[in-house]
Structure to design on (163 residues):
């Protein structure tokens, strides 16, 4: 399994492996191990809503101790680490994903997608997949991003939220 396989499956299903919006945080931590809570959670306690728990490049946003958002964050020109549950047999993986490469993989998998005009402006663009409603946000590389094409959009984040 590759990072692209994980991204396409997320885009198609709205799930990251067995992880899904609505599941109890305790169940997610049983699968992933304890996450790294956002500093606000450490300061205010586990009942504060809307802050993520992180496992390297994977984040789960939590509301009332349930997963309310799934996020995969990437940094173009670097590597990412995802939990083995999400990306088996991989310590780190290349995190440079061109917009054209992801949309071609989605097309090959039969995953419908359209421009997300709410998040397409300036130096960034976005798509929304159907029917899973997963959002992918791309941007032009920053000055410290070591990528081969400075004029093309790279994936920064894919996410899904509960309604």
């Amino acid at each position: 399994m590759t990072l692209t396989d994980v991204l396409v499956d997320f885009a198609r299903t709205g799930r990251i492996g067995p992880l899904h919006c609505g599941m109890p945080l305790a169940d997610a931590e049983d699968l992933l191990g304890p996450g790294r809570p956002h500093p606000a959670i450490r300061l205010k306690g586990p009942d504060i809503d809307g802050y993520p728990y992180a496992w390297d490049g994977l984040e789960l946003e939590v509301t009332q101790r349930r997963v309310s958002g799934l996020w995969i964050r990437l940094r173009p020109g670097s590597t990412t680490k995802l939990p083995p549950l999400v990306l088996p047999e991989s310590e780190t993986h290349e995190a440079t994903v061109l917009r054209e490469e992801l949309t071609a993989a989605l097309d090959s998998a039969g995953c419908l997608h359209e421009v997300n005009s709410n998040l397409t402006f300036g130096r960034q663009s976005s798509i929304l997949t159907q029917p899973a409603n997963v959002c992918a946000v791309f941007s032009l590389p920053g000055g410290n991003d070591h990528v081969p094409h400075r004029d093309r959009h790279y994936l920064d984040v894919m996410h899904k939220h509960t309604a």
